[in-house]
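Progress note, sequence design subtask.
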């Protein structure tokens, strides 16, 4: 079969409201040139995030009807716990309302000012929760992962030499745990190899440092391991996922990604002392430990969605979607992060707009141009999201890469939507020399990309 079709049929639709460029110009201006502040009804193709924006299956909707809304020890909780334990093997399992809640509990329970947390790459909320308590988030990505043009198969890998240097510099006693994010969202949705995860675990073990997996896209990472890593081809995605989790002492997850649901997260571990701390903070801020801020119907949908995310037909379709768009853009000479990641296509804004310096945020210029050209909403992963600003001097330290992420909601758009997207990107590409940068006119101290105001230069 030459064409990989969507492995589903559509039985319910949601209207997309058309708009003119003049209308979009008005909406973007009212949103202070930040697409996060544009209303969803004013967006044609919404690729802002793949978090919680997917479509659930008929099986998930059916499962929701079985939701047990008992406050403590519900039947739905038992289904959730059983499914998560089967995939991850963790002894203590805590649901949360979303991933950043798990991150906040983790940081609040285990970190203090001055601690250092190494990771391949922290994503935005992970870094923010670590830094909020005064700890330091260190990104230790391999050099291949910082090169958009590199075609290395596992560009999400952690650099072992850099990890050893961080431990030597700060001391193992100041590193409560290390982390690995799968897949590496910040660097293009790039996977981490099983071999690298084992090597990181071995290195951390030598220094008695626990390993925590940020597992938002664990099923996509398992797919890449199966397809790209030697000796993994004949294993199931579930078997690979189970081995990944066997290397971890704990895990956070936003189930809004590879849980295939619109809300939910988890915080899991083996350590009883950690579990006691997590449980106490969970009760204080999220709810009783057997529902963690979620309805019973959400727990039911998650239990089904986690299994569906590990189905080979689903993962092949999901990856084929990304490959399709990436190949069409590459044919047109449009610079993207290579190879294509698992959940998004990442445009290389630095190469797309070389005339706009990092200090003028080329990613924001490109994001806004895509919205104006065709109502496409993406997100900047560059010097706004990951750059550092000195609060006293206002001096900006740019991000290593200037990217624009087009994250694809799961089971939402069809090929005609993707063909339209390619046309919009090509239109902006042809007019790229006319685009101008932006400056920030208002920003909060944390996670500024969500609410910052911009003015075109």
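Output:
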């Amino acid at each position: 079969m030459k064409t990989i079709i969507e492995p589903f049929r559509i039985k319910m639709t949601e209207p997309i409201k058309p708009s003119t460029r003049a209308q979009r110009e008005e909406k973007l201006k009212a949103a202070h040139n930040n697409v996060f502040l544009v209303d969803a009804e004013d967006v044609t193709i919404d690729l802002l995030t793949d978090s919680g924006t997917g479509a659930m299956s008929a099986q998930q909707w059916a499962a929701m009807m079985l939701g047990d809304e008992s406050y403590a020890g519900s039947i739905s909780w038992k289904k959730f716990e059983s499914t998560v334990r089967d995939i991850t093997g963790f002894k203590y399992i805590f649901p949360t309302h979303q991933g950043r809640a798990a991150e906040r509990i983790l940081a609040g329970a285990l970190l203090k000012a001055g601690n250092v947390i190494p990771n391949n790459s922290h994503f935005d909320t992970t870094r923010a929760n670590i830094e909020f308590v005064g700890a330091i988030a260190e990104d230790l990505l391999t050099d291949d992962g910082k090169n958009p043009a590199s075609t290395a198969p596992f560009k999400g890998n952690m650099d072992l030499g850099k990890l050893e240097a961080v431990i030597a510099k700060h001391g193992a006693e100041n590193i409560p745990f290390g982390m690995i994010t799968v897949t590496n969202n910040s660097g293009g949705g790039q996977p981490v190899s099983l071999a690298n995860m084992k090597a990181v675990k071995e290195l951390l073990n030598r220094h008695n440092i626990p390993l925590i997996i940020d597992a938002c896209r664990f099923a996509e990472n398992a797919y890449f391991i199966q397809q790209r890593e030697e000796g993994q081809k004949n294993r199931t995605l579930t078997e690979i996922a189970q081995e990944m989790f066997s290397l971890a002492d704990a895990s956070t997850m936003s189930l809004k990604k590879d849980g295939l649901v619109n809300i939910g997260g988890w915080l899991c571990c083996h350590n009883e002392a950690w579990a006691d701390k997590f449980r106490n903070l969970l009760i204080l801020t999220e709810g009783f430990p057997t529902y963690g801020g979620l309805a019973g119907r959400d727990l039911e949908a998650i239990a089904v969605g986690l299994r569906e995310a590990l189905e080979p037909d689903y993962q092949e379709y999901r990856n084929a979607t990304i490959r399709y768009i990436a190949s069409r853009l590459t044919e047109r000479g449009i610079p993207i992060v290579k190879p294509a990641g698992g959940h998004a296509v990442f445009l290389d804004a630095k190469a797309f707009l070389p005339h706009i310096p990092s200090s003028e945020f080329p990613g924001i210029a490109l994001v806004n141009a895509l919205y104006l050209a065709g109502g496409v909403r993406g997100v900047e992963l560059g010097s706004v999201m990951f750059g550092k600003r000195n609060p006293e001097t206002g001096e900006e330290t740019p991000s290593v890469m200037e990217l624009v992420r087009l994250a694809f909601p799961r089971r939402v758009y069809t090929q005609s939507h993707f063909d339209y997207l390619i046309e919009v990107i090509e239109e902006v590409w042809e007019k790229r020399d006319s685009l101008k940068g932006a400056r920030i006119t208002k920003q909060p101290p944390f996670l500024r990309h969500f609410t910052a105001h911009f003015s075109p230069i």
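The radius of gyration is 21 Å. Work on this subtask will continue into the next period as scheduled.
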